[in-house]
Amino acid sequence: MKSLTQYASNSVLIIDDSDKFVKTAVKYLKSCGLIKIHSASNGIEGINLAKKIKPDIVLLDIEMDPGMSGFEVLEQFHKNNLDLRVLLITGHDTGLIGMRGARLGITDFVSKAVFLENIEVKIMEALDFGHTISEKNNTPKNIINTNFDILERTLKDYNIVNQDELIIKLNQLRDEIKNNSPDKNKISRIMEFIKNGVAGNLAASGIIEVAKGLLSLI
C-alpha cells in the first residue's frame, strides 16, 4: 500500500495564517513520511517562498487575515508564472470553492474539518495525477465528486422533511453529470427540485451554492 514515505523527496509548501493549524499539519505530514515541508503565514510570504523553492505541491488556505485570500494568491501564482500543483484548504464546505478554485487551476481542495483523514491521499493523488495551475481548463473530476460528497453529507446532517427524496434526486444529478453529454435542462430541473426542497432550511444557501458550483464545472 502506498504511503507518503514514498514521496519524501517531494517538497510541500503550506500557506496558512493559523499557527496552530500549520503546526498540526506539519507534525502530521512528517509522521506520514514527508521531509521537505515549508510554511508561510500569509500570502505575500507564501508567494515569495514559492518563487524561491518551487514546491512540488502547495497547501493553500483560502481565508487569511490580514492580507491576500487564497484566491488572490492563486492569481499571483499565475501572474508570476508559478506553475504549481495546488490543494486549497477551506474551513467551509461550499461549492464556491470548487467553482472559483477550478477556474484558477487547483488540483483539488480539502476541508479543514477532515484534513488529517484526507490529506495523505489527496497529496499522493495530486503528485501522481494532478495537473498544475497552467492546466486550469482541465477541471478534475474529483472536485465534482467532492462537491457531491459535501451535498449528500449536508442533506443528511440537517433535519429536512423530504430528505430521502432529495438524496434520490441528488443521485440522479450525480448520474447525469457523469454522462459524456449531460442534459443541462434535466440537470436544471433536478436542481430546481433540490432548491425548493431545502428552501427555508439553515443548510439551504450552502446546498444551493454547491449545486451552482457543480453546474459551472461541467
Task: Chart the SSEs and their pairings.
Layout: E1 11-15, H1 19-32, E2 36-40, H2 43-53, E3 57-61, H3 70-79, E4 86-90, H4 95-103, E5 108-111, H5 115-129, H6 141-157, H7 163-178, H8 184-198, H9 204-216
Parallel strand pairs: 1-2, 1-3, 3-4, 4-5
Helix pairs in contact: 2-3, 4-9, 6-7, 6-9, 7-8, 8-9
How would you characterize the overall build of this protein?
This protein is α/β, with parallel strands linked by helices and 218 residues long. Helices cover 55% and strands 11% of the residues. It has nine helices and five strands, in the order E-H-E-H-E-H-E-H-E-H-H-H-H-H. The protein has a five-stranded parallel sheet with strand order 2-1-3-4-5, with helices on both faces. Helix 7 runs antiparallel to helix 8 and helix 8 packs antiparallel against helix 9.
Q: Characterize the overall form.
A: elongated
Spans of at least 5 consecutive residues whose pLDDT stays below 50 are none
Number of helices: 9
Average pLDDT reading: 82
Proportion of residues in extended strands: 5-15%
What string, H for helix and E for strand, traces the elements in order?
Answer: EHEHEHEHEHHHHH
Radius of gyration: 18 Å
Structural class: alpha/beta
Tally of strands: 5
Main attributes?
single chain, about 220 residues
A few lines on this structure:
With about 220 residues, the chain is of the alpha/beta class. The chain has helices at about 20-30, 45-55, 70-80, 95-105, 115-130, 140-155, 165-180, 185-200, 205-215, and strands spanning about 10-15, 35-40, 55-60, 85-90, 110.
